[in-house]
Inverse folding.
């Protein structure tokens, strides 16, 4: 890249465009790693800082995913999820022809605070089950699911292997869900959520608060964190 004197476009912008052209041409596929910053700096004949700026812009745009200690990868296509159905995220990912896997961070009994207990139809301080799971699509984190479950609906919740079945799929088995209520907000993640989603603290998230119910009672309360640059919620009637 030695024609800078004949081109007023900043070097990092030209690197960005070159990488976008190569991605569009299929040089790298979704989930594949691109060359390291050092390798790209040598290829383009620029400082590593210049390459870093180009990669940072592309990651903020949702084109690339940067994973600490692992490298930089082609991001999956933006995920579209519907608010009108109670869906198992593993099924949604499979329908896109992609691979789902998950990582369990917490599976525990806790005392529900007054608001959560009331939402579940339980007395303040009642024991509920809590799970925190990161869902990934082709190895890229797309959702942190924090769920509170009523023991009256799913008494064996804590005994499940959530690397083999998702909470949604299990609850559908033991207490078929007949409806849900949602609220959606945009929020910045805290450090724990940012780490689990492998995003920066400044990256906005779409946060879905979902209450699911059986015919008889409220089954669970879920807070679902999605990286905004990788996720889009849709709906229609």
């Amino acid at each position: 890249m030695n024609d800078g004197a004949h081109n007023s476009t900043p070097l990092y912008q030209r690197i960005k465009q070159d990488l976008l052209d190569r991605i569009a041409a299929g040089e790298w596929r979704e989930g594949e790693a691109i060359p390291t910053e050092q390798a790209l700096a040598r290829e383009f004949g620029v400082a590593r800082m210049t390459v870093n700026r180009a990669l940072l812009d592309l990651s903020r745009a949702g084109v690339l995913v940067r994973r600490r200690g692992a490298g930089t990868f082609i991001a999956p296509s933006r995920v579209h999820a519907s608010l009108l159905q109670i869906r198992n995220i593993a099924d949604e990912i499979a329908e896109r022809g992609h691979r789902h896997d998950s990582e369990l961070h917490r599976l525990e009994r806790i005392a529900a605070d007054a608001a959560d207990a009331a939402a579940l139809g339980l007395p303040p301080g009642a024991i509920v089950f809590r799970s925190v799971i990161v869902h990934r699509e082709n190895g890229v984190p797309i959702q942190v699911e924090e769920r509170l479950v009523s023991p009256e609906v799913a008494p064996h919740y804590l005994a499940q292997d959530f690397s083999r079945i998702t909470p949604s799929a299990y609850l559908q088995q033991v207490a078929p869900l007949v409806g849900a209520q949602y609220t959606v907000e945009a929020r910045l993640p805290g450090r724990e959520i940012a780490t689990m989603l492998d995003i920066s603290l400044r990256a906005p998230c779409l946060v879905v608060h979902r209450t699911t119910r059986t015919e008889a009672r409220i089954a669970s309360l879920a807070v679902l964190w999605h990286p905004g640059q990788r996720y889009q919620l849709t709906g229609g009637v």
About this structure: The chain has a mean pLDDT of 87. Residues 79-234 form a domain with the Chorismate lyase fold (CATH 3.40.1410.10). The CA atoms of residues 33 and 73 lie 4 Å apart.
